[in-house]
């Protein structure tokens, strides 16, 4: 079902019907019954793909991103009716579909499949989930134990989104930041700050590592002058948005 930029109008219509319009209409027709019962809960099924980019998955990720936002909007619309709305966002799960994919990749075992892109290698737990692990998350959000939870998208992804793009980075990538000083490298699943102590000096790896980097502010200025003390200690006070 996943398609990239070459998706046809028919491809878009089909996946929108399944992933977005289907859950929306199901909720629409369930809400009157939930209201009559005095309130309750709706749990939508999102995905890790609601929050990340995946090559060749344009249509799928777009619709799953819509499910995450639909969950938030429904929660706001229905809160006064005593209806909580949340979403569960699985990572890679060992199902008949993922087993079919593993078979098409040369008859991979479950353990071997978990070493492949989009089938588990990005998940810090280095395995695929069992379906019941996703079911328990749904059960929690539907239960009274989650009575103060609404508008949330619960990640059940083995840590995939926690490590972000760094964990799946196979190549060395650099982004120059600041006037002189900061370089962010992603290599072998690690993002580290590298500091240039002067314009002419070779980069020196600092002892600071972060999971994902959206922006780093002030690092270049903090190390703008060539002084010996410009190292991990001076980086520690820099403001870093690692969300």
Number of helices: 8
Q: Give the strand tally.
A: 9
- The whole-angstrom Rg is 22 Å
Largest sheet: 4 strands, antiparallel
Overall mean pLDDT: 75
Reading side by side through the largest sheet, how are the strands ordered? 4-5-6-7
N-to-C order of helices and strands = HEHEHHHEHEEEEEHHE
Structural class: alpha/beta
Percent range for β-strand residues: 15-25%
Provide the domain count: 2
Uncertain stretches of 5 or more adjacent residues: 166-243
Q: Can you identify the CATH class of the largest domain?
A: Alpha Beta
Which fold does the CATH topology of the largest domain refer to? Rossmann fold
Structural overview:
The protein is α/β, with parallel strands linked by helices. It folds into two domains: 9-163, Rossmann fold (3-Layer(aba) Sandwich), CATH 3.40.50; 169-241, no CATH class. Helix content is 35%, strand content 20%. It contains eight helices and nine strands. A four-stranded antiparallel β-sheet has the order 4-5-6-7. A hairpin with a 2-residue loop joins strand 5 (182-187) and strand 6. It starts with 8 loop residues before the first helix and ends with a strand. Mean pLDDT is 75; it is low at 166-243.
């Amino acid at each position: 079902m996943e398609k990239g930029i070459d998706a046809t109008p028919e491809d878009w219509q089909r996946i929108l019907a399944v992933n977005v319009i289907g859950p929306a209409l199901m909720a629409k027709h369930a809400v009157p019954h939930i209201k009559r019962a005095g309130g309750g809960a709706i749990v939508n099924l999102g995905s890790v793909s609601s929050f990340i980019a995946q090559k060749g998955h344009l249509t799928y990720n777009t619709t799953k991103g819509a499910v995450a936002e639909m969950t938030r909007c429904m929660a706001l619309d229905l809160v006064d009716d005593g209806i909580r709305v949340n979403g569960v966002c699985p990572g890679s799960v060992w199902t008949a579909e993922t087993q079919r994919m593993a078979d098409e990749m040369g008859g991979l075992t479950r353990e071997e499949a978990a070493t492949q892109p989009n089938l588990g290698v990005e998940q810090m737990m280095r395995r695929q989930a069992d379906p019941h692990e996703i079911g328990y998350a749904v059960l929690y959000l539907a239960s009274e134990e989650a009575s103060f939870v609404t508008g949330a998208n619960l990640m059940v992804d083995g840590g995939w989104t926690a490590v972000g793009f760094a964990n799946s980075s196979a190549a060395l990538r650099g982004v120059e930041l600041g006037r002189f000083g900061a370089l962010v490298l992603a290599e072998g699943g690690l993002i580290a700050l590298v500091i240039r102590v002067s314009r002419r000096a070779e980069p020196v790896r600092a002892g600071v590592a972060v999971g994902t980097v959206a922006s780093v502010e002030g690092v270049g200025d903090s190390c703008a002058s060539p002084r010996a003390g410009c190292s991990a200690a001076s980086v520690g006070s820099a403001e870093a948005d690692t969300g």
